[in-house]
Design a protein that fits this description.
CATH superfamily: Hotdog Thioesterase
Distance between the termini: 43 Å
Radius of gyration: 17 Å
Helix content: 25-40%
Strand order of the largest sheet: 1-5-6-7-4
Structural class: alpha+beta
CATH class: Alpha Beta
Number of domains: 1
Largest sheet: 5 strands, antiparallel
Order of helices and strands: EEEHHEEEEEEHH
Number of strands: 9
Strand content: 25-35%
Number of helices: 4
Length: about 160
């Protein structure tokens, strides 16, 4: 995995991965949403490997499910175009980790994604401060309070409307 050969990331750093849109990624003429979501997942994996979290998680038998993902696809990517996915943690609470992702090409944002994730051991949640301290990653990032509040409000409304 190329992430192992890259420099270590701090919790406030940004991971970047360059990629190419291949024929297997397209529907008719543009990159399909499933392929874009896969590229974003690769960005999150790059981040957890480079921050040292994956190694720690394996030792402690932690796993890291995503609780929700919100994506917006702004501009299409066409076959053989190159683009970059940028991944960063912008907010953490005791229980939740909020990850921002952007797919960019030529200085333009093509897609954005916000992922709400957590860390668990069995059925128990792992306090995020424990993770940051174990990895010596510095202070918990806490920017974007307004965005997190809006995201949580929208998620609650969606759940109330769609779950009987």
């Amino acid at each position: 995995m190329s992430a192992k050969r890259k420099s270590k990331l701090q919790i406030t750093d940004e991971s970047t991965i360059d990629f190419t849109v291949w024929p297997t990624d397209i529907d008719v003429s543009i990159m399909n949403h499933a392929s874009l979501m896969t590229v974003m997942e690769m960005g999150r994996i790059d981040f957890i490997v480079r921050s040292g979290f994956l190694k720690l998680a394996r030792q402690k038998k932690w796993y890291f499910p995503s609780a929700s993902v919100s994506a917006q696809f702004i501009r299409p990517l066409k076959m053989f175009q190159r683009a970059t996915v940028r991944t960063r943690v912008f907010h953490m609470s005791d229980k939740w980790i909020y990850i921002e992702q952007k797919v960019e090409r030529g200085g333009k944002v093509m897609a954005i994604c916000l992922v709400k994730s957590t860390v668990k051991k069995g059925r128990e949640f792992v306090n995020t401060q424990e993770i940051v301290e174990a990895l010596q990653l510095g202070k918990l990032p806490s920017e974007g309070n307004e965005l997190v509040e809006a995201y949580e409000k929208e998620s609650l409304l969606l759940s109330k409307k769609l779950i009987p």
